[in-house]
Amino acid sequence: MGTTPELTSLRSARVTAAHRLARRSFRGKERRFLAEGPQAVREAVAHPGGPAGRTLVELYATPEAAERHADLLAAARQAGAPVLTATPEVMAEISDTVTPQGVVGLCRFLDTPFAEVLRARPRLVAVLAHVRDPGNAGTVLRCADAAGADAVVLTDASVDLYNPKAVRASAGSLFHLPVAVGVPVQDAVAGLRAAGVRVLAADGAGQRDLDAELDAGTLRAPTAWLFGNEAWGLPEETRALADEVVRVPIHGRAESLNLATAAAVCLYASAREQRAPAGCRSVTSS
After folding, report:
1. Where are the alpha helices (DSSP H) in 163-208?
2. pLDDT tens for residues 94-144?
3. Which of 136, 163, 191, 214 has the fewest CB atoms within 10 Å, i.e. the most exposed one?
4. DSSP output for 239-263
5. pTM score, two decimals?
């Protein structure tokens, strides 16, 4: 059964407002962002939101996507979010991708105050300091979620959490765990240490390697991993803030590991030490 699109004009106020969210300044002003694709929208529907209301504000879908994902649209309506159909041209105007998936959710910001992260007494935290690539930021967030981390912190020198590429790279994990943003790295380290969390800087120049940490059993304690910029790692002044600077050992001939891979190795090393083996779930399961 065909559906007549409700959003047909590229100049409509709704479409213009959504299109402007591609810019960080407008996202910050409106405290809203776009989540593209059925997976991200499904997680947005499930997220309860906060004092401002539920996370999903509106859902846009092409007629074809509306039929293909009828269950998702029904869930959005059930959650109280208006669902509007849009022409493919309108969806292309709203979307940040070359090949839109036909489903976009307009969402409220959902970052968590850093003080609230600390009050929860976290045992495993990923801190992104000076991380500028949105794809890497989103992927590290996804790794932290998969490893069972309690929170992610993005420092004030890092990329915007709500950058469309970061949202896509998180593959829905943005909606799963607390994320604090805009925290000065000195404040992040001081706050975590005061909360009883040991801070480790992951850096190829570290004097201590990850194998030594595992052998010593030190990763069983509450730990925050500090990850740096993709190209130059962590500045000396940031490394100096940590309790230890730890490198991932390179046993083969590779020159180095990229940020997301190193983060996954470090976070899973901590998760293995902190969790009973019987509690682990296969990384290949869906």
Report:
1. 164-169, 185-194
2. 998 888 889 999 999 999 999 999 999 999 999 999 899 999 999 999 999
3. 214
4. HTTSSEEEE----SS-S---HHHHH
5. 0.90
